[in-house]
Amino acid sequence: MARFFATVAALVATGAHAITPEQMLSAPRRGVASPNPSGDLAVFSYSKYSFEKGSNAHAWHLLDVKTGNITDTGISASDVSEIVWLSDTGIIYINGTNDDVPGGVTLWIGDIKSPSSSKLVASLDAPYSGLKVANTSSGDLHFLVNAKAYANGTAYNPETAVTPKSTARFYDNNYVRHWDTWVDKQRYAVFAGSLSASSNYALASGGLRNLLKDIKFTTTRPESPVQPFGDLGDYDLSPAGDIYAFVSKAPQLNKANYTASYVYAGLFNGTESPKAINGPDSEAYKAGHQGASGSPRFSPNGTTLVFTQQDEDYYESDRVILYAVDFTKGSDSGVSVVNWRSLTPNFDRWVSSPHWAPDGNSVFITAEDRALVRVFNIPLNAGADYQPTSLSPNTSYVSDFAVLPDSTLLISGNSIWSSRDYYTLSSSGKVGQLFSATKADKELAGLGPHTFSEIYFDAALPGYDEKLHAVVVKPSNYSANTTYPLAYIVHGGPQGSNANTWSTRWNFQVWADQGYIVVAPNPTGSTGFGQKLIDGIQGQWGGYPYDEVVNGWQYVHDNLKDVNTDQGIMAGASYGGYMSNWIQGHDLGRKFKAIVTHDGISQTQAAYGTEELWFIRHDYDGTILDASATYDKWNPFNHIANFSTPQFIVHNTLDYRLPDSDGIGLFNVLQTKGVPSRFLNFPDENHWVLKQENSKVWHTEIFNWINHYSKGTPLDSEPIGE
Ligand SMILES: *[C@@H]1O[C@H](CO)[C@@H](O)[C@H](O)[C@H]1NC(C)=O
Ligand SMILES: *[C@@H]1O[C@H](CO)[C@@H](O)[C@H](O)[C@H]1NC(C)=O
Ligand SMILES: *[C@@H]1O[C@H](CO)[C@@H](O)[C@H](O)[C@H]1NC(C)=O
Ligand SMILES: *[C@@H]1O[C@H](CO)[C@@H](O)[C@H](O)[C@H]1NC(C)=O
Ligand SMILES: *[C@@H]1O[C@H](CO)[C@@H](O)[C@H](O)[C@H]1NC(C)=O
Ligand SMILES: *[C@@H]1O[C@H](CO)[C@@H](O)[C@H](O)[C@H]1NC(C)=O
Ligand SMILES: *[C@@H]1O[C@H](CO)[C@@H](O)[C@H](O)[C@H]1NC(C)=O
Ligand SMILES: *[C@@H]1O[C@H](CO)[C@@H](O)[C@H](O)[C@H]1NC(C)=O
Ligand SMILES: *[C@@H]1O[C@H](CO)[C@@H](O)[C@H](O)[C@H]1NC(C)=O
Ligand SMILES: *[C@@H]1O[C@H](CO)[C@@H](O)[C@H](O)[C@H]1NC(C)=O
Ligand SMILES: *[C@@H]1O[C@H](CO)[C@@H](O)[C@H](O)[C@H]1NC(C)=O
After folding, report:
1. CA of 80 relative to ligand 5 center, distance in Å
2. Tens of pLDDT along 142-194?
3. In terms of DSSP bridges, do strands 362-369 and 372-379 run parallel, antiparallel, or are they unpaired?
4. Is residue 533 part of a domain?
5. CB 562 within 8 A of CB 481
6. Which GO terms describe its biological process (predicted)?
7. Helix, strand and coil percent figures for the chain, each rounded to 5
8. Among all ligands shown, which has an atom nearest to the Cα of 304?
9. Which CATH number covers residue 631?
10. Among 32-41, 332-341, 396-405, which stretch is predicted with the lowest mean pLDDT?
């Protein structure tokens, strides 16, 4: 680690600003700001890692939306995992400690201005999370939470559950594990409960009701939130607390083969099991809209629900469209919906994060658009051809936002130079800056838009007549009088992007501040530039995108005079790791001094070790049985004869979608050939390296490797030897 500190010292000595991995990893992390009903205060989570202490400090902070003043609420974030507003200072929160039931949680009601006077109102017997609350006209609070549950519907509490005597995992269908977790017999479910105003908000008799328990299924047991990334965004409760909605995967389809999911809705007080409003019997389904659903959100008066859906039942990167339906309610037998319609049939972007305008006449959404996530407004009565234009600033990547009572948006954004910005955006487009991490955090001091630029180069995708985009990031202490080696970074996905966004995993400024100019291209497959570019990757993994990263490299070589391509390196994770391996076997590989592959496919047939069979079936034109030629055509291992550039390989044990055997096999081939190579593994990390101490090693060893091969600095001797 001594080498690491020496680099920091050198930068400090020149007086130049530069961000080191350690600074980036120990800088504060701030969540999305959640405003109170009148919109004058907002609460957000705060955490900061200390390398000296080896631990994180967590807190809940309060933002004054008029002045930007930020104070600590004093609420212990080690106790409190979630806070929901009930009134302008009234809150209800989940406390992760339950003195009566080990592994359970408790609900507390209090005042954010005097947290010590909070009152415990309910004891819940499992680790519930994802609280959504409606204050009903009776004064009772209706709420939804989620937890894993047994097949019989009872919530699962790992601390009190009986541990089986054998560790066997035993399956008779092909979805045995996902992301970083082996599939067990429990599934997540949404639970409904009521707190009675007349008895100090005690949990009403009957306790919590598992809303998914009685849904009929033939193949896939209903589960909500949808794992592994689903959260409270997968369900909603109407403002009056009388109707709920949630997303669950198609019950008649195999989970490994299909992405399809439906929105279910039901009466909060009902005994009927919920109905899939866009399931196989629906108008939506019959019209061909059969893919994954998301983000159900009730309108302010509860009459309308918007949600997102893709068309294809196994294409995870199909266009995401916004829909609306109206409820006709009023009988105990459940809900029925009418007037299903698409709100963005011809908007060539992926809609996410719908938030209703207060008047219920339009919906604000986000969509990735040209290397930013931007905010748009969709009027309910907009015609089919309506093309919304971005409302948010051209320098802000919107993480999420909230709508205040006067339709002003409270935006939580970020960018390559700021981990968090809070600002308001008025209906007239006026931006009111409230907070910028770059100004507040000493770790980010000196960062700014001056290091960021964009270039455009030629596409190879037939019929695509726009230029392709790439992000360029210069070192913080850039001097026009010198040249910097190229760090060429290919993104994952392949349906993903290199964007103007803060990352704690691939932070381009941190890479640039090792003394490189980062160029991060968006070739065929990239998101945010329209569906045609996304769809073009199908059956083309090493095809058009490879030709395009060659075009991008050539553009840099010919046009960016401050970039030294002769000393360049390239790196990529996931699909970017696949592309690194493909490049290693092809001519572009000879242009780099070093290659870095993080969790990438090296053998396409081995991709059948994944559980997301829908993904490779789509991207490789079919299953391994009916499209074996495509799997073979784009297999990096067919080109091992040409592997010769020094390569650093990272592959983590908990990456179940891309098993670590791909990284080990690649390393073994390089070692067999005598190509300089190193293999880094984290047994406790998944597709990503999330723990700060692990990430510090990741950065240190990768930078040591590329700096050695690009600039001749000494190679460390830390790896485990003979
Ligand atoms: C920028 O930082 C590098 C790395 O420490 C250093 O070698 C170089 O002299 C600095 N350049 C300027 C202009 O400060
Ligand atoms: C911010 O709030 C704190 C606590 O209420 C107060 O002491 C301080 O004066 C405020 N600062 C500004 C700039 O308003
Ligand atoms: C629910 O709303 C009513 C009417 O606005 C209010 O009086 C009551 O305090 C609210 N309940 C809670 C727990 O904040
Ligand atoms: C959380 O619950 C524990 C156990 O009841 C209690 O000691 C603690 O004060 C609670 N914290 C908060 C912020 O409510
Ligand atoms: C459901 O199954 C679990 C685990 O076997 C058991 O502990 C629980 O009592 C069952 N619940 C009901 C309602 O039968
Ligand atoms: C889907 O999964 C089933 C059950 O494993 C299998 O029989 C079928 O061939 C799969 N279909 C496709 C298209 O992969
Ligand atoms: C349940 O709610 C519906 C709609 O709000 C209402 O019509 C019905 O009477 C309620 N049923 C009961 C048993 O309260
Ligand atoms: C609900 O709000 C919408 C949009 O403002 C309006 O058109 C509709 O009439 C309202 N419905 C009820 C029952 O208030
Ligand atoms: C963003 O940039 C585009 C193109 O330069 C411009 O037309 C648009 O007005 C800008 N939008 C905002 C919100 O500044
Ligand atoms: C770059 O070169 C110019 C012209 O030679 C000179 O005036 C300037 O001081 C140099 N800048 C740096 C940062 O060395
Ligand atoms: C290795 O590279 C050469 C030069 O581009 C090419 O002709 C040859 O086909 C490649 N071999 C393999 C196995 O990819």
Report:
1. 28
2. 999 999 999 999 999 999 999 999 999 999 989 999 999 999 999 999 999 99
3. antiparallel
4. yes
5. no
6. proteolysis
7. 20, 35, 45
8. 8
9. 3.40.50.1820
10. 332-341
- The CA distance from 261 to 280, in Å, is 11
- The protein residue with its alpha carbon nearest to ligand 10, atom 5, reads 481
Give the position, in ligand 9's atom list, of the atom nearest the Cα of 429: 13
Q: How far apart are CA 91 and CA 72, in angstroms?
A: 15
Active site residue 574: yes
The pLDDT value given to residue 329: 67
Q: Which residues of 553-586 are buried (b: 16+ CB within 10 A; e: fewer)?
A: bebbeeebeebbbebbbbbbbbbbbbbbbbbbbe
For residue 580, being part of any structural domain is answered with yes
What dihedral do alpha carbons 566, 572, 576, 580 form, nearest 10°? 50
Domain region containing 491: 449-711
Indicate the number of domains in the chain: 1
The mean pLDDT of 554-571, rounded to a whole number, is 98
Question: Residue 345 domain-assigned?
Answer: no
Residue 446: both structure tokens together: 């000196």
Q: Which of 224, 249, 246 is nearest to 146 (CA)?
A: 224
Global pTM reads 0.95
How many degrees, rounded to 5, is the angle at CA 507 between CA 503 and CA 509?
A: 135
What are the tokens at 352?
Answer: 């996410």
Q: Give phi and psi for 339, each to the nearest 5.
A: 65, 40
Ligand 9 pocket at CB < 6 A: 390, 393-394
The pLDDT assigned to 717 comes to 85
Mean pLDDT of 262-277: 94
User: Mind listing the pLDDT tens digit for each residue in 20-29?
Assistant: 999 999 999 9
Burial bucket for residue 94 (CB in 10 Å: 0-12, 13-18, 19+) = buried
Residues 396-416: tens digit of each pLDDT: 999 999 999 999 999 999 999
What is the model's pLDDT at position 720? 76
Can you say whether residue 197 is alpha, beta or left, with left for phi > 0 and alpha for psi between -120 and 50 degrees? alpha
Give yes or no: 326 in active site.
Answer: no
